Amino acid sequence: MKKIVFLATIIGLGVWLFWVPTVTSEADLGDGKTVVLRGQPLFGWHSDWSRQLVISDGWSSETVKLFEDTGWWRGSALYRDAEGGYLLDDGIDYVVFALCPPRFIDPPSRQGNPGAASEPAPEAGCHPGPLEAEAPASRYHDQGEGLRFLGIFVETHPGLAFRSWRDVEEPMPDSIDAGG
């Protein structure tokens, strides 16, 4: 009997490890522009995620692997600057990108000031969508960068969701919250 229970446990664990569902959440920025956070739960006692960021202009897309969440992740805030660049800020790490065409300017990083990251030049024909045009200025990153808070990707049960600035207030970044 112990062998059957052991074998069933091993088989169940194997199935879970290899067929864990990937969940996604999409921020639709209008005009075909989307930012998608893709997550796959990691094996553990608390909520950990393996995450990817997918950016698209409606014609092409780019993907980058984000740092794995090992319990610290409280959400990923999405911003747009006046020049047409975007910032995804996890509070601990960040990535800077453009959507016209989709490209990563600064890869995922845990160093420096996200507002001081290199800015992409605005692209012809790439205008702010409805979500972006009315978004409020950032309360925490407004150090001359002109960042506007678009919303935040958060963990829900059983997956991920994007909450726009219309539905949620901008969270205080961990670096500020911790007095850094």
Notes on the structure:
This protein is mainly β and about 180 residues long. The chain has one domain (about 20-175). Helix content is about 15%, strand content about 35%. The chain is built from three helices and ten strands, in the order H-E-E-E-E-E-E-E-E-H-E-E-H. It has a six-stranded antiparallel sheet, with no helix packed on it. A four-stranded antiparallel sheet has the order 1-2-3-4. It is elongated and about 65 Å long. The relative contact order is 0.17. The model is unreliable at about 115-120 (pLDDT under 50).
Largest beta-sheet details: 6 strands, antiparallel
How many beta-strand runs? 10
Q: What does the overall shape look like? A: elongated
Helix content: 10-25%
Strand content: 35-45%
Strand order of the largest sheet: 8-7-6-5-9-10
- Rg calc: 18 Å
Number of separate helices: 3
Average predicted local confidence, pLDDT: 75
- Helix/strand structural class: mainly beta
Topology as H/E string? HEEEEEEEEHEEH
Uncertain segments are 116-122
Determine the N-to-C terminus distance. Answer: 56 Å
Which oligomeric state applies?
Answer: single chain
Tell me the number of structural domains: 1
